[in-house]
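SAMPLE LOG
Freezer: B-3
Tube label: C17
Construct: single chain, 149 aa
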Amino acid sequence: MKINAFADVSLRALLVLAAAPAATLLTTQNIADAVGTPYNHVSKAMAKLRTLGLIEVERGRSGGSRLSSAGRRATVGQVLRDLDTRTDAADCVAPGGDCPLIHECRLRAALARAREAFYRELDAVVVTDLPGSKQMTPVFQMIGLRPGL
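STRUCTURE (predicted):
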């Protein structure tokens, strides 16, 4: 299975927020720099994560984002399900309309089961368990935050 670029950026943003202490607010620019992704992509991801209730945002000069309590409990499987906008694992549409094999297609059902098995496996992985200090300390130093975060 392959996740889309939007889900990838969203998960990376969650990892950065998960590594920061609960009271720390990170700006979208901090997160964009930390994950090496353009600001506008991260901004869209942050807006979606806020809509999903996974992050809290404080506006203003000293504002930023942090994981919400729901974000601290979120699993990778849950996040990916919430971010998946595809209705089918396969593109069952041909240039002239639906695929002629679409009626009673067993492949679509098998692919849907495989995608759900992928998510089910990731339901055991809590986002906050993923980042380690060895991994995140250089990232935080790179964006100008204290190394001890």
